[in-house]
Amino acid sequence: MKVMKSIILSSKLLFLAASTLVISSVSCGGSTGDKKTQDTTAITATAPKASISSILTEKQFNDLFPQRDKFYTYAAFIKAANELGQVKVKISRRAVSVYQFIRTNKKNGKDSVARQDADWNEEWAKKKPDSVFTVDYGDFCTASAADVNKKELAAFFAQIAHETRHGMNGSYTDGLMLIHEDNTSNVYVSDSDEYPAVKGKKYYGRGPMQLSYNGNYGFASNIIFGNSKILLNTPELVEQDAVIAFKAAIYFWMTPETHKPSAHDVMTGKWQPTANDKANGRTTPGFGMTINIVNGDVECGKGDNFGMTDRIGFYQFFLKKLGITDVNCACSCATMKPYKY
């Protein structure tokens, strides 16, 4: 993303890769998703989990990011986590590339269709059920014991710090300094039936995770707003509104892709390697797997390299600052093969 500098250089590889769930899925037909935002059956409202503010104070946040741009504030981060925490999304797939997103507002208990591909109700698609999973965004750094939640938070902060750093190597004090990537002339448009680019708009890397490409802006917008067109039409919101910027980063952290798990599941131990994972050196949940998820094509399976070791350095720095340790840290991805699509 830096995940854009790194993931824009990384994430151009990665956030586009992250879009395999989206971009690779759009070739089966046009979207009716934003036209179908009607409420479906209401469910019982869910009480929110504890706020991240219970494990992170404003003083700690400021201490972790002393050189941050004033755009990034503790209040914006906590508000983003709390508001997105009221969202749960059930993602269903048929015939490999036909999707439906049911977005639940946990505050009022109502469901709505945030996306439904044109072929969803075709008989051939109905005969080919594929996968169903639910992402509860309220689980971000709140779903486990306090030490596990803090490790997840340290890992998340390490990734966004590396992606937005702009200072001295090895200081680990220069995270969240960049709001967007340096070269804003980059357009980052790719073909997408579901999330078509808007003429004249640029989808270069923005925010803590340096969100890039129209497909990723549309997908993030589906999750955050229940409407893909908001960020497709106004991608600059990610560099103008810090709450939206942090929500986009949390969306990326929490959402699995077609071929790989979410960073959240990896850090909380929910993910366990498949036979294919084991054959490719992806054997242990831990920080190294989050690097593979964020920027594996560039930094994993290549031995020691600056990008990987810098992320690890940030993680270890933040662990210490938060008063915890990761004794059995599976921090490196040097021998892991990156995920392929």
UniProtKB/TrEMBL annotation:
InterPro entries: Glyco_hydro_19, Glyco_hydro_19_cat, Lysozyme-like_dom_sf
GO molecular function: chitinase activity
Active-site residues, as the UniProt record annotates them: 163 (proton donor)
Signal sequence, renumbered to the chain: 1-28
Domain named Glycoside hydrolase family 19 catalytic: residues: 137-326
Pfam families: Glyco_hydro_19
One GO biological process term: defense response to fungus
CDD domains attached to this UniProt entry: chitinase_GH19 (cd00325)
Record key words, sorted: Disulfide bond, Plant defense, Signal
SS bond partners: 300-331
UniProt-listed PANTHER family: CHITINASE 12, CHITINASE-RELATED
Name of the protein this chain belongs to: Glycoside hydrolase family 19 catalytic domain-containing protein
Biological classification of the source: Bacteria, Pseudomonadati, Bacteroidota, Sphingobacteriia, Sphingobacteriales
